[in-house]
Specification:
Helix content: over 70%
Shape: rod-shaped
Mean pLDDT: 77
Number of domains: 1
Distance between the termini: 75 Å
Strand content: under 5%
Structural class: mainly alpha
Number of helices: 5
Number of strands: 0
Length: 154
């Protein structure tokens, strides 16, 4: 296998992995949202037993922290694959145009490159990071409120 077709195969495989990582990211977000909804439903059904609500609140906080960590590392993985894909795009653009024409690949001009984005700043994680933080704050307030009622302060 010659160099252009090898780099193209690497590029296409990396692009495929990046797309699968994005799909997995949203599948994880959906799964965590469903599980948080189940916890909220269980807490609303256990209104008479305050100890169960406090337990569910503590579990909800722990679950929200785990959710935040999983989302952070999933986003970091996506950012790494975006970097790999961008680097491979640059390599393909630098290949000999004649070899690319033989392979019928349309490569961008090397001068028309877009600089690499800053991967220290996350693009997709900015909005979704607030969902687990908000659910964590909600669980903290629920468990604090019911624990105060349980010990007799309210």
């Amino acid at each position: 296998m010659d160099q252009p077709s090898r780099e193209l195969a690497l590029y296409l495989k990396s692009l495929d992995i990046l797309q699968k990582q994005r799909e997995l990211y949203w599948a994880r977000v959906s799964a965590f949202l469903v599980l948080q909804g189940l916890l909220f439903t269980a807490a609303s059904l256990a209104r008479q037993d305050r100890r169960i609500i406090i337990f569910l609140g503590v579990f909800g906080v722990i679950f929200s922290v785990i959710w935040l960590i999983v989302m952070y590392y999933s986003d970091a993985n996506i950012q790494n694959w975006e970097y790999v894909v961008c680097e491979l795009e640059w390599d393909i653009a630098d290949l000999d145009k004649h070899k690319l024409l033989e392979l019928k690949i349309d490569a961008p001009e090397p001068d028309s490159r877009v600089p690499l984005p800053n991967f220290l700043k996350s693009k997709s994680f900015m909005i979704e990071q607030y969902i687990p933080v908000l659910t964590m704050l909600l669980w903290l307030s629920i468990s604090t409120f019911y624990s105060l009622i349980l010990i007799g302060y309210m």
